[in-house]
Records
---
Amino acid sequence: MSRSAELAALIRSRAGAEPPRLGLILGSGLGHLAEAVRGEAIDYADLPGFPHAGVSGHNPRLVLGDLEGVRVAMFGGRAHYYERGNPAEMRLPLEVLKALGTESLILTNAAGSLRADIPPGGLMLLADHINLSGANPLIGEADDARFVPMTEAHDPAMRAALKSAASAEGVELPEGVYCWFSGPSFETPAEIRAAKVLGADAVGMSTVPEVILARFLGLRVAAVSVVTNMGAGMSAEAISHEHTKAMAPLGAAKLERVLRRYLRDLA
Ligand code: HPA
């Protein structure tokens, strides 16, 4: 049995066999939503091979259960490329999600905005992304399956449903392009100016490898950024991880309303 099949069996034995309809990965400072799920919580530490998710502001647990009448699998924390230099850190969790029978995934993250009309506290739906990191989680993959098409990687139907959920909640959810920098250092002002020229609307240190892996595994995927700050050099505020964690709850409350409505619409 593959490692993901073994872990899926272990998870089913604890949380029940019904496949989750949706997987969710919660970004920095957004882990609170996992507490709203009624179901079984499993520490990553009890799932051999799961990442250690050693970034403060994350809650490394998988919660399976009901939210707004939909069975979900919520990942309270993610591992990042910058932690150990491995862009495929989230491969096993996503393989397990697939093995559980889930077909769709929503990713969330904290991000810096490059657009004055998407200020801190605002949300951005990823319409597309730019991989500026030079890394790819599929490097080393042996066969032709590695040549994953990335046109419409961000699922149009899921995006439409998220936009309609946001509009029903009166939450602004503009679409934009997310640019992946490896981190962990923040960008320089020159890098932010360069990202703008390249067509980015927000910058961050995650999500893109998971989008690539999700498409590789045949999961439909959409992603939402919670803006915690303007990009480096764009405002007087100092950028820091402390600031990210402090600001995330502002947008997180809006994101929670959008996600809850999205799930009610699914149910
Ligand atoms: N840059 C990269 N990642 C981030 C930022 C940022 O400005 N804010 C939150 N995550």
Note: Strands lie at 22-25, 38-43, 61-67, 70-75, 104-113, 123-131, 175-180, 202-204, 220-230.
---
Amino acid sequence: MRFSRSNPILVAFFFGGIILPTAILSVLSFRNIQNETFLAKKNFEESLKSFKKEVENVVQKEQRKILQETKAASQFLYEQPQNLLEFGNASSFKNVNGLSAIFLFNKETIVYPNIASHFYYESSKWPQTNYSSIEQQLFFEEINKTNEEKVKLARSIRLMQSPFQTKTEQVQNLLGLLRNFYQNKKYDEALHIISLLQQRPNLQSYLHYQLRESLQLLHFEILVELKRHEEAQNLCLLELNRFLQQPHINDISATRYFFETTFNQILSFEQLTQETREAFWNLRENFNRQLTHTEILYEHLPFFKKILSDHLSPKEGILYRFDGNDFFFRMSYPWLSGDQIVIGKINIEAYEARIRSQIQTVAREWKNIPYTITNVNNSILVGSIPENGMILEQQILGQDLSWTLTLYQKDQKEFRKETRHKMFLLYGLVSFSLITVLFGSFFMFRFLIQERKLLFMKSNFLSSVSHELKTPLTSIKMFAEMMAKGRVQKPEKIQEYSLLIGKESSRLENLIGAILSYTRMEHTSTAFKWERFDFGICAETVYNALVDIALQKPLEISSRIEKNLFVMGDYTSLYSLIQNLIENAIKYTNSPGSIFVQAYEENEKIVFSVTDTGIGIPSSEQKNIFNDFYRVGDEMTRSTKGSGLGLAIVKRVAETHKASISLQSRLGKGSTFTVRFKKAE
Ligand code: ADP
């Protein structure tokens, strides 16, 4: 670990800056993750609290909103029509979603609905309209009849008015006559009898209210049949005016029936002007609304009286009451000013729907909380009961509505499931980041060490190469100088020195050749000359050139080199591949030892192998020896001359020829390098 020793700052940076913080962070994260279930429970409790609060708030808020809307709507109640003329105008009545009716009082005097004011409460001052002229016109109109008919009619009436008859009998007879005329479509006569019945104040008292209404309706129908539309309209208006001014409402359903029928028929008249149609339309809407409100008021009269007189704390101004069927609320000061009182009848379905939708919006954000909201009848409005159904807490909501919010215990299994999910995710994430950091650091570290080694090897190479270059050069220079100065006279010495110069030169040549072929191979493969040739012959040539060197060591050397082993490749580079492998075998095998060189064909491949009984290569080094400038750091290698480029060249040549290299080696026993080439076609 030369690197670690020589770069303490870098190591400190690695451990102190990356590994240590990562390890601490991971430990802390793992510890935190283990607390997850506890946290989830605590979280759930906190969530429950917030949820409860939020639901309470939202219910209160919506209830207040409804009250605000009611207050705003109550302003319009003062503008509701009071007399016949106003009933024909379009009124601005404001509905409140959640209420089915709204009533306005001043102390105990009713302000709206106006038509109810005559019944139980002090009557307000109605503007009096004089309709007597219309009445005159309508009821005392001369009926256009022939004299003969007049006589007939007069006679029949006289007959019925016999002094022996009681008034009831007279009315009954007149009604019988009326029915008869109406059935026989003798409308004029029928009209005459109707006017007769209506004119006579002494007969009026005998007419039951409903009977009076039916007479008027009959009157109206006859006018419609006779296409006397305007008169029919007037009759309806007159009747409405009379109704508005009378001190009692005798029978709301009979009144409703009368006006519904007449208004609907009038609105179906074809000749109606746009203006009149609109007026009747408004009349119908306004009157119907008031009638409906009045009906509700009458249905709950005692209840209304009670709620009006109920004591109300001045702070609140709002009072909710349930009359057994319906919910009402009373709104007064400080919501409203002075003696104003508004009573709202709650339309429970719409009211609940409004609040429910608000709760649902809130609940959407709290998906994991089991809860229900139930109303007075115990039916669930929102939420659902969970499987275990263990109630945790109950709370009354919207006090006056008597809704109950029930919170349930969450299933233990659910907790575990939830946290397990989260824990898996967190464990996964932490482990992943830990592994990534560790792997990253490891590879970076390794890369730096390799880089460092490479640098070292390169500088080592340079020094060894320069040394290698210098040694033969020094000898050459020395021998040449000696001979030049004439110090060597003997011809046999001259021959010996010349041979030595030649030998050193070829060593130099070989070295330079290795460097050149290495750099050639490192930079490009385009310089290769691809040709088809016999690999066997090439191997034989190299083998023959090297045999002597092996024998000189001395080493046993033998071969089994076949012929006709054709490959596609670059002759020169394959030559140096073979040369490097055989040279290495010679270099790294001590005498006595043996070398065996083979070249043969097997399974469509050309196989070349060199086996030696040399020093062998430790398995930890086997993957490195093919790297540029790499040399095994043992004694034998150090004492053997070399550049660390031989096997790098072999590897590159093999790669460019798409050949595979394998190595079997055992330390101290020997090595076998095998290269498998693709056979040429
Ligand atoms: P060198 O010039 O050092 O021989 P090489 O690239 O040819 O460079 O070889 C790299 C290293 O592999 C050598 O330094 C040597 O330690 C080892 N090596 C190569 N061939 C053999 C072999 N046949 N037996 C033992 N060791 C070998």
Note: The radius of gyration is 60 Å.
